[in-house]
Structure formats: C-alpha cells, structure tokens
Amino acid sequence: MRLATHADLPGARSVMLDTFYHEFGHGYRPRWHTDVVDLAGTYLDTPRHALFVAVDGDEVVGTTAVRAQGPASPPHPPWIAERYSGDGTAQLFRVYVRPGHRRRGLARRLVGAAVGFIAETPGYERIYLHTDTRVPGAEAFWRSMAVEVCDARDGDPGHHQTVHFEIPVSVPTGPAR
Question: pTM above 0.85?
C-alpha cells in the first residue's frame, strides 16, 4: 500500500479500465473518466490530489484516489453538488480492487490511507463519495465506514443506482490490516 509513483500508473490504469468494462459494464466514458487518461496530471502533479495503490509483487491490484472537487450536477442532484462545492471537499474516486484480491481488507486500507492524506492536507473539511449499488458489496462496504447523505436510486435497475456518502475527516475508517 503506497502513494502511486509514475511506475505504478500503467497498472493503476489497467485496474480502473478493467473495472469500467468488467464490473460496471459500460466501459470507458470520457465524460466521467478523463482522469484515467492523465493519471499523472490529475493525481501526481496536482496539489491536494493523490492516488494510492495496493500492490502484489509488481502488480497493481487496487486503487483509491483523492481529488479536491465535489460532485457535478448532472448527473447528481443539484443540492448534492451545492453541498459539496468548494475547496473544503475531498472526493474519493476509483476505489477498485481486482476480483482475485478482494475480501482481504485492501479497499479498507486504501481508503484509510486516503482519509489519512486528507486529514493531513490543509483545507479539507469533509470527504464525499458516491457508489453504484449494483456493484456487489459496494453499498455494504461504504455503510461500514461512511454516513449516507442521499439515496438517489431511481427505481430503474438499468440506470444509475447511486448512494451518496460522507466520511468525517476526523473519524478513522477502521484498523489497518
């Protein structure tokens, strides 16, 4: 578990793209995934942003990213975008672990590292994230460490099934394993 380096970026990108195509079923979408094209510029070269990776030998098997930005509307409700606008919001992105490495605490440790980074970075007041509840285990995972802000599921199983969460900056996400 570590902050990503330039050498980690191809593996991190692979984890992200595999998640888009195999887990989410929609593939790469430029409107939502521009950071994946320029991981270095988005996460390594931008102050207050970070990318964390979990590695197994030489392979990147998990990712978690932090960006100093709130959610956009659309696709999210306008009041959510307003609530989390401004420099005080850190948003968690790309919390992905390869299927063969799940259920080992990697995602929890990655999120813990990101929360620690946020707590040590001046200016952050809150942590925002959203999840697609169609991903097996995602909703239960976030409910174990975050507080629901809005359940925006729309009743259409083929459409966004999003729940929005917040993690207080001062609250630890659980023990590192």
Answer: yes
